[in-house]
Specification:
There is one protein chain. The protein is α+β, with helices and mostly antiparallel strands. It has 2 domains: about 1-80, Alpha-Beta Plaits, CATH 3.30.70; about 80-170, Alpha-Beta Plaits (2-Layer Sandwich), CATH 3.30.70. It is about 35% helix and about 30% strand. The chain contains 6 helices and 8 strands. The protein has helices spanning about 20-30, 50-65, 80-85, 105-115, 145-150, 165-170; strands at about 1-5, 35-40, 45, 75, 95-105, 125-130, 130-135, 160. Strands 2-3-1-4 form a 4-stranded antiparallel β-sheet, with helices on both faces. Helix 3 (about 80-85) crosses helix 6 (about 165-170). The longest helix has 16 residues, at about 50-65. It is globular, with a radius of gyration of 16 Å.
């Protein structure tokens, strides 16, 4: 099955430095095949005979051991990424960032959806199956109310990807 690993919190602010060539080698050594990394933000497309949850556990152990940090990795089928891109509910605009926020814990997903701010000129949020869609004014990603909320520690893994990144993941898939 073609799967996508979304690594959380790497190569950001000088912490958890993970070179993509080394990451690819670690993923291959962990038993995944046809491995491709996408950008330096922690996106890996690969084939695996295990289900995504099992792949995530294998990769978290392998990546954490190889790079010396507590790796948080959400793995989804490539088709989930395709559905996320195709289902984006807001018109795309060069003045705004288009995101999909992937959440592994259903209770956290419900909490984030319930706490999402009302639609405003700054940002909008819409729940979907296993993720939230988020549109925010450029320059406000980290400071907006929802950006601040997603940056907090939650049960499970919460990881955000720009739709442009997800489109590159699909192209690599």
């Amino acid at each position: 099955m073609r799967q996508v690993a979304l690594l959380r919190g790497i190569n950001v602010g000088g912490r958890n430095k993970v070179p993509m060539a080394e990451l690819r080698a670690v993923v291959e050594k962990a038993g995944m095949t046809n491995v491709r990394t996408v950008l330096a933000s922690g996106n890996v497309v690969f084939d695996a005979e295990t289900d995504p949850a099992e792949s995530a556990g294998v990769l978290e152990r392998a990546v954490g051991e190889a790079f010396g940090y507590d790796a948080a990795i959400h793995v989804v089928p490539l088709e989930t990424v395709r559905a996320a891109v195709e289902g984006y509910p807001f018109p795309r605009s060069p003045e705004r960032h288009a995101y999909a926020v992937f959440v592994t814990d259903p209770a956290t997903l419900r909490t984030l959806a319930a706490a999402a701010p009302e639609d405003s000129d700054l940002e909008r949020v819409r729940p979907a199956d296993g993720l939230l869609y988020w549109e925010v004014e450029k320059g406000s990603t980290l400071s907006s109310p929802f950006g601040t909320l997603t940056g907090r520690k939650h049960a499970g893994i919460v990881t955000t990807r720009n739709l442009q990144t997800l489109e590159k993941v699909l192209a690599a898939g």
